[in-house]
Amino acid sequence: MLIIKNLHAGIEDKKILKGINLQVNAGEVHAIMGPNGSGKSSLASVLAGRESYKVTEGEVWLDGKDLLVMSPEDRAREGLFMAFQYPVEIPGVSNINFLKTALSELRKYRNQPELSAKEFLNLTKEKQQLVEFEAKLANRSLNEGFSGGEKKRNEIFQLAMLDPKLALLDETDSGLDIDALRVVAGGINKLRSENNAFVLITHYQRLLEYIVPDHVHVLYDGRIVRSGNKDLALELEEKGYDWLKREYQFSE
Ligand code: ADP
Ligand code: MG
Ligand code: MG
Asked: Which residues form a coiled coil (predicted)?
């Protein structure tokens, strides 16, 4: 589904990603962990097509299509969903209207008929229940005045509504209390299927107690320095990141 080959990217003259290789298949959940400043959010930004980042080398394929030549909008239309570490607030645009527009665009792109008002409402209700999202939040302006936990729940609700192929969630767990974490993780678990894939970027192992990843990767200094299964996350929780830093510097 997603293939990243030798991806190098940076901002202005600063090299941030220094040769990322990653393959994510349909049905899989991958966790990307790593110390602060290792490039996790940058990787998400590059995949989303954020303009400030310049790709200097490498390839990214989404379902056989060259992602790097696509506009951010086309990436979304192709089924990429991003939840950023700091979700934007859009005053004056209600959540529901945002989703209505986004979904209608997506369906057009996929040659699916437009949903009637009733169908849209039913879908909204179904997905709200699925991710335990409070109906009153849906009608408020997008993320405006939302607490950290509400923003993250909202992301999972958007995710449920848009049904992407590949969802990339950047530190969805940060700042969540344990109840919100359970709801968010529960939502993701319910949305997991053989047809989609998730990449969870997280600094801590905590989220992975609720969502069991198929693969865990450690990003350090713009490279994936280690990959493993869920036990790698436990090992990191126990030992921290310093041993990997030492090992990595040693081998350099
Ligand atoms: P992480 O998400 O793993 O904490 P980031 O991707 O946010 O890491 O940051 C990786 C590196 O890129 C850091 O050294 C950070 O200082 C740098 N960086 C991030 N954004 C910018 C920017 N806008 N301009 C310059 N450097 C940046
Ligand atoms: Mg950070
Ligand atoms: Mg980050």
From this structure: none
- For ligand 1, is residue 38 a contact (CB within 6 Å)? yes
What are the pLDDT digits (tens) for 151-165? 888 888 889 999 999
Q: Is 10 in the pocket of ligand 1 (CB under 6 A)?
A: no
Using a CB cutoff of 5 Å, list residues around ligand 3, an ion: 40-41
Q: How far is the CA of 34 from the centre of ligand 3 (A)?
A: 9
Contacts of 62 (CB under 8 A, 6+ apart): 1, 2, 75, 78, 79, 80, 165, 166
Residue 251's pLDDT is 61
In our burial notation (b when 16+ CB lie closer than 10 A, e otherwise), range 138-176 reads bebbbbeebeebbbbbbbbbbbbbbbbbbbbbbbbbbeb
The ipTM value here is 0.96
Q: Are 184 and 153 in contact (CB under 8 A)?
A: yes
Ligand number, closest to the Cα atom of 50: 1
CATH code of residue 148 = 3.40.50.300
Number of domains into which the chain is organized: 1
From 7, 12, 14, mutation site for ligand 1 pocket: most ligand atoms within 8 A of C-beta: 14
- Whose CA is closest to 198, among 170, 178, 226, 225? 170
Q: How many angstroms separate the CA atoms of 178 and 195, rounded? A: 29
Atom of ligand 1 nearest to the CA of 36: 4
Find the domain containing 240 and state its range: 2-251
Q: What is the pLDDT of residues 225-248, one digit of tens each?
A: 999 999 999 998 888 888 877 877
Residue 26 clears pLDDT 80, i.e. is over it: yes
CB atoms within 10 A of CB 27: 14
pTM of this structure: 0.91
